[in-house]
Amino acid sequence: MRLKVALIQQSCSENRTETVAKTIGMIREAVSKGAKLVCLQELHTGVYFCQAEDVNRFDMAEPIPGPSTDEFGAVAKELGVVIVLSLFEKRAAGLYHNTAVVLEKDGSIAGTYRKMHIPDDPAFYEKFYFTPGDLGFKPIKTSVGNLGILVCWDQWYPEGARIMAMNGADMLIYPTAIGYNPDDEKDEQIRQRDAWIISQRAHAVANGLNVISINRVGHEPDFSGVCSGIKFWGNSFVAGPQGEFLAHASEENEEIVVCEIDLERSENVRRWWPFFRDRRIDAYGEILNRWGR
């Protein structure tokens, strides 16, 4: 089965209406180019607000179902396309998640995934806002395949990718908001960006799956004024099941990347490289420890 997927790499602003309108326009263009699955970046309805801790930012959260699933659901139904959203979910008073939502082509919610690994680093203060996910690593069944959705910081952890693959994911999808401090040395910026790309290509190789990674672009200032903000490094890409680049966006520009992937190729790659056959599941018990003996 061949599937045309689209990655929407864009900048975002504090104006939700303008940001969402731009996203929907890019979705329409992607579908006009034949895309049957459209993947959006992490927290795509506005700025990456986790650069500082501000209780007023909780006002940006929304329920699921809610305004975004209604608005993008109508687009999915109109265009007959599956869409991967990434939202700031208000689950209950004082309980919030970083949540991906998959909309089926009839506009219904096919499933959700709550981000499991939550960072707490300078300019990425997500533990202040998000409760760790409690839905596990379960692929979401859709008309275009079983989607293994993980979110941003999850991409550094091989365990999540592996479990998604073991549970039947046909591909791995990582909505992302990542960049560097503009004050860092250029060499350090490159090391960070390249490590991000390498880690996800490794997930493709280790699991014999296509990997789709969608990142934002542009500079977003730190609204608290403490640091220089984040320069998001774009570089959205699709890697094939041997880690090969199938598509790769720029570092600076808003782009609609449309790429055809071959879902049946995973079968052949897993025959050539039978990593699942050779796993020593009898010897991996220590992986559940925080550290070694």
Q: Provide the CATH architecture.
A: 4-Layer Sandwich
Order of helices and strands: EHEHEEEEEEEHEEHEEEEEEH
**Which percent bin holds the helix content?**
10-25%
Radius of gyration: 18 Å
Largest sheet: 6 strands, mixed
The first-level CATH class is given as Alpha Beta
Proportion of strand residues: 25-35%
> Overall mean pLDDT score?
97
* CATH level 3 topology: Nitrilase/N-carbamoyl-D-aminoacid amidohydrolase
What would CATH call the homologous superfamily? Carbon-nitrogen hydrolase
In order across it, which strands form the biggest sheet?
5-4-3-2-1-17
Q: Which oligomeric form is depicted?
A: single chain
Question: Which structural class fits the helix and strand makeup?
Answer: alpha+beta
Quickly count the domains.
1
How many runs of DSSP E, i.e. beta strands?
17
Number of helices: 5
Taking pLDDT < 50 over at least 5 consecutive residues as the criterion, the unreliable ranges are: none
The separation of the N and C termini measures 46 Å
Could you say which overall geometry the principal axes of the C-alpha atoms support? Answer: globular
Characterise this structure.
This protein has 293 residues and is of the alpha+beta class. The chain has a single domain, classed as Carbon-nitrogen hydrolase (Nitrilase/N-carbamoyl-D-aminoacid amidohydrolase, 4-Layer Sandwich), CATH 3.60.110.10. It is built from five helices and 17 strands. The chain has helices spanning 16-32, 67-79, 158-166, 186-207, 265-272; strands at 2-9, 37-40, 82-92, 95-103, 109-114, 120-121, 124-125, 140-142, 145-149, 171-175, 179-180, 210-214, 217-220, 230-233, 237-239, 245-248, 255-262. The strands form four sheets. A six-stranded mixed β-sheet has the order 5-4-3-2-1-17. Strands 8-9-10-12-15-16 form a six-stranded mixed β-sheet, covered by helices on one side. A three-stranded antiparallel β-sheet has the order 11-14-13, with helices on one face. α3 packs parallel to α4. The longest helix is centred in the last third of the chain and has 22 residues, at 186-207. The radius of gyration is 18 Å and the shape is globular. The mean pLDDT is 97.
